[in-house]
Write a structure and sequence with these properties.
The chain is an alpha+beta fold. It has 2 domains: about 290 residues, Dipeptide-binding Protein, Domain 1 (Dipeptide-binding Protein, domain 1), CATH 3.90.76; about 210 residues, Roll (Dipeptide-binding Protein, domain 3). Helices cover about 25% and strands about 25% of the residues. It is built from 17 helices and 26 strands. The strands form 7 sheets. It has a 7-stranded mixed β-sheet with strand order 13-14-15-4-16-24-17, sandwiched between helices. A hairpin with a 4-residue loop joins strand 7 and strand 8. The two termini are about 20 Å apart. The relative contact order is 0.16.
Length: about 600
């Protein structure tokens, strides 16, 4: 199970049917919680109301969950260097322009968010804000900020700095920059002036700083994702001084590639437990150094190096040789042998989704629901999950894990049926279908241990029903994500999602809440239904709306084929202590020591 988790969380931390008492989301009132990175115990946020009304009508209560092991005060630093094997290179170091796990693995050590998540759970906890209060039916959020915090450049973290970040995001100039703000545009829906693919009316209205430790953020409408979405790592707080000095908003597009300013590449400046040292591309290493002025539990090691090793076998060999101290996403087939070698295997709870995406733009045949259904019937999902994914993985029936509020029963399913697939293709006059199937290389993802293996199995299933598959392998951060998510070059693609917080909109809304090149369809009815569910304050009604959406997506739309949710693992050497595995892949290395 998860290493060093609180005993109350050792079981599933996010029950399948969440009510307000469990979620900490969508409730009104005041949330005051203890410092998650000091010696204080972890607190769970609870709400006494199932309806989001004015703050006077509902107040979040708290119940303390004591940890089995006390947290360190940071005074027992072990020094030395910790080397962690990363599965891929970071795209850059400005969180607002990132949406992938390998980039966030690094930036999580450099920055902090207003609201965080308790280690090893999906539960809200203090970050740079020690308290937050929702009012005005969820359209106003007031934060009490942590005092005495400094950015890595020595400038002060305060309310003005927070508002500078919110206003920067909202007023981001240029289509290239806006199109790289995938998380922001998904949650806030639009900008002061939409220049790229985002076309919605903005959720964000304004940010005010009545005093140095108080921030008031106003929205134009209720959004169910908040307050949990304030913990999105894309919404990390940067030094306004460094943002200005190093041209942070300069993003350009040249053909199929994007380039960024010096802030994102050379001078990321947050408040985190580590400071940026260097990115040595020749040796594939990112070096971070201990921040001795960190406001929370100070890092126990002097240096943290992420060594980029795309090949999982090579990561395993380096771990055994002692040249790295740990790595993420070991092959499920190696769990037993690595454990027998004395390594520690830290298995996360499953909170992700792997899917086969279908782009309806380029190939007219894919606009026919019968063709998309044929693809679903053609794939032997049970064999894929059994043979290619870790023990404990589940075949997906919809586009969210079964632990998320809004998961639907009585949904249309597509059991493996090659003959049905052939019949549907024939009915759609698509028996000679040819498809460009994109899949990533040089990466391992929590939901996708070996992209090549998964592609091979699915491609063979498709060939067996008469579909001609043209394989298009592309490096993960060397073209794949842009080809799929920005330019929509593909017909089929493999991708997935690790949840950021326990809310159906973080899955369904992220995938299908607006027109996206990844899926290539424009369905105003579906977009409106998702927006309506997301704007529903009553949690029971919201859950029912998402349940119906899940049924409709699988029966009437089928923009892709959900494949599986799986429990990814981290492996470290026996002399490594203090790493807490997170279902959100939200691992922080300041607690890690090396004996």
């Amino acid at each position: 199970m998860i290493h060093r988790m609180c005993s109350a969380h050792t079981a599933m931390s996010y029950p399948r049917t969440l009510d307000d008492a469990e979620s900490g989301q969508g409730g009104s009132g005041l949330a005051r919680v203890a410092d998650r990175r000091s010696s204080s115990p972890v607190f769970r946020i609870r709400s006494v109301s199932q309806r989001f009304v004015a703050v006077v009508a509902g107040v979040l209560a708290l119940s303390m969950v004591a940890c089995a092991q006390p947290q360190s005060d940071g005074s027992t630093a072990t020094g030395g260097t910790l080397v962690f094997g990363a599965a891929g290179a970071p795209k850059n170091f400005d969180p607002i322009f990132n949406d992938d796990g390998e980039s966030f693995r690094v930036t999580r050590q450099l920055y902090d968010t207003l609201i965080a998540y308790a280690p090893g759970t999906t539960e809200l906890a203090p970050g740079l804000a020690t308290a937050w209060q929702g009012s005005n039916e969820g359209k106003t959020w007031t934060f009490t900020l942590r005092e005495g915090v400094k950015f890595h450049d020595g400038t002060s973290f305060n309310a003005a700095a927070v508002c500078a970040n919110f206003d920067r995001w909202f007023n981001m100039p240029g289509a290239a920059a806006q199109d790289q703000m995938i998380y922001y545009s998904g949650v806030f829906e639009g900008f002061a002036s939409n220049r790229g693919t985002a076309t919605g009316q903005p959720v964000y209205n304004s940010c005010a700083a009545p005093d140095a430790k108080t921030v008031v953020v106003k929205f134009n409408k209720f959004k169910a994702a908040f307050p949990a979405a304030f913990g999105l790592f894309s919404l990390s707080i940067s030094s306004p001084t460094a943002l200005r000095r190093y041209n942070a908003d300069h993003v350009t597009k040249n053909g199929d590639s994007f380039s960024y300013g010096d802030y994102a590449n050379l001078h990321p400046t947050g408040t985190g437990a580590f400071k940026f040292g260097s990115f040595d591309k020749a040796h594939n290493t990112v070096t971070l150094v201990r921040n001795d002025d960190y406001w929370g539990e100070k890092a126990k090691v002097d240096r943290l190096i992420f060594k980029i090793i795309p090949d999982e076998y090579a990561r395993k060999q380096e771990l055994r040789a002692g040249t790295i101290d740990g790595y993420d996403l070991p092959s499920p087939a190696d769990y037993a042998s690595l454990t027998a070698d004395g390594m520690k295997m830290l298995v996360r709870q499953p909170f992700n989704l792997l899917y086969l995406g279908i782009n309806q733009k380029n190939n007219p045949a894919l606009r026919d629901l019968r063709v998309r259904q044929a693809l679903a019937y053609a794939i032997n999902l049970k064999a894929l999950v059994h043979n290619k994914l870790p023990e404990g993985s589940e075949v997906a029936t919809q586009f969210m894990p079964s632990t998320v509020n809004g998961y639907a029963d009585n949904i249309q399913q597509y059991s493996y049926d090659p003959q049905m697939a052939k019949d549907l293709l024939a009915q759609a006059d698509a028996s000679n279908l040819r498809l460009n199937f994109y899949y990533p290389t040089e990466v391992t993802r929590p939901y996708m241990p070996n992209p090549q293996d998964i592609f091979t199995l699915i491609a063979e299933n498709l060939r067996q029903v008469g579909i001609t598959v043209n394989p298009v392998p592309r490096p993960w951060n060397g073209g794949y994500k842009d080809d799929v998510q920005q330019f929509g070059k593909h017909d089929l693609h493999l991708l997935g999602w690790t949840g950021d917080y326990n809310n159906a909109g973080n899955f369904v809304g992220t995938f299908f809440g607006r027109e996206k090149p990844e899926f290539g369809f424009d369905d105003s009815a579906l977009f409106a239904a998702i927006a309506q569910a997301d704007a529903t304050p009553d949690r029971a009604a919201q859950a029912a709306a998402y349940q119906q959406l899940n049924r409709d997506i699988m029966a009437k739309f089928l923009p892709g084929v959900p494949i599986a949710s799986s429990p990814p693992a981290i492996v470290v050497r026996s002399n490594i202590d203090g790493l807490v595995a997170s279902p959100l892949t939200d691992e922080r290395f300041n607690t890690v020591s090396k004996r």
